[in-house]
Design goal:
mainly alpha; single chain; globular
């Protein structure tokens, strides 16, 4: 009996995570996804933004409002990007370092945004209802969603989804140590568990496994495996299954052709197309097809995305009202200037909150026993 017969086929050594230049195209895609969401919040839906414009955005943008309504799918694109980035950043990193990195990335700008929006909405000239002081304090924990507390930031529900993904990835991959095999098992196990959860109708499982959003996170993780090895058929299988399931959930949640009172009627084909473009964009980055997009300003765009995302909705309403109702600017000008104003505010938050506080918080958490 030979040695090969006893031990089996030798395992291929685990490849180190790809290192090199920053994927700046991914930073640019982040900003595109954030601008999609902003377009939805400013012109693609009804609700509180109607008070900012003085009438429905349908009246302000008779044609564009239909296209803006697809902007909500920027969230799904964000989740695909997040799956890619979290797998990349968690590979080869101990649990404490992973936690310190994620917490220091999310919290400083988030805390500043909660305080800022609460303060602005408390001004007597602002017509929007602010949350109670007690609820505002709970919002600082980022746990207002499961606690049933009023939200200060309308977009914070996506952060709750992100936090749950981080926890699952940390427990299943980072804690035992990332490897290709473990990541594949994590993706396959989560996909199957999410499908079972959908059939079981168990609220607790819904909260933990997020069947509606899991395919997008898992698809992003699969695309990072593709980035490591484009010939990995398991990785491509993860991406393909995730897209097929993800588009189903997106269509089921957003296709509203049967609702006569819907703000805009999205087509199922349009929803599938936007989801497909999101997956294809991250795939192009994973395969290196967009390595030529290596402009330094894309790094700046990526740095502005998170603070912009946090503040653009509620503070954007205030700016729209001031520009359109207060100053009488046309709708298109008010829309464009509001986006610019929120980007400027995002730069200020990045420059004076994130840059000084993020490294300090990361160092403090990394050193803590």
């Amino acid at each position: 009996m030979t040695v090969r017969q006893v031990t089996g086929t030798p395992r291929r050594p685990e490849r180190a995570a790809p290192r090199g230049t920053r994927l700046r195209a991914l930073d640019g895609l982040r900003l595109v996804a954030a601008l999609m969401v902003a377009a939805y919040h400013y012109g693609g839906r009804g609700g509180d933004v109607t008070a900012a414009w003085g009438s429905s955005p349908k009246d302000q943008f008779p044609t564009l409002h239909q296209y803006f309504s697809y902007g909500c799918l920027g969230v799904q694109v964000f989740f695909v990007i997040s799956g890619f980035v979290i797998c990349m950043s968690g590979w080869g990193r101990p649990l404490k370092s992973f936690f310190a990195s994620r917490a220091s990335r999310l919290l400083p700008a988030y805390w500043a945004a909660v305080v800022l929006v609460t303060a602005v909405f408390a001004l007597p000239m602002v017509a929007y209802r602010t949350v109670s002081p007690s609820d505002a304090l709970v919002n600082l924990t980022m746990l207002q969603q499961p606690l049933g507390v009023d939200r200060v930031l309308g977009v914070c529900w996506t952060l709750w989804s992100e936090v749950r993904f981080y926890a699952l990835f940390a427990l299943c991959v980072v804690l035992p140590g990332a490897s290709r095999r473990r990541v594949i098992l994590f993706c396959a196990g989560w996909t199957l568990a999410a499908a079972i959860t959908q059939a079981a109708h168990q609220p607790l499982l819904d909260v933990v496994l997020m069947p509606e959003y899991a395919p997008f996170f898992i698809g992003g993780v699969g695309l990072y495996l593709v980035h490591r090895d484009r010939r990995d058929v398991y990785a491509w299988g993860i991406v393909g299954v995730s897209f097929l399931i993800g588009q189903h959930y997106a269509v089921r949640g957003l296709w509203n052709a049967g609702d006569p009172n819907a703000f805009a009627h999205r087509s199922s084909a349009g929803i599938v197309l936007v989801v497909a473009l999101g997956f294809l964009a991250v795939a192009a980055i994973a395969l290196g097809w967009l390595d030529w997009a290596n402009w330094r300003w894309l790094t700046v765009a990526g740095a502005l995305t998170y603070p912009f995302y946090l503040v653009h909705e509620h503070l954007g309403w205030v700016v729209i009202h001031a520009l359109h109702i207060g100053l009488g600017l046309p709708s298109a000008a008010a829309f464009g200037l509001t986006v610019v104003a929120m980007l400027v505010l995002a730069w200020l938050l990045n420059r004076y909150v994130e840059r000084p506080l993020t490294p300090r918080l990361r160092a403090a958490l990394a050193k803590a026993r």
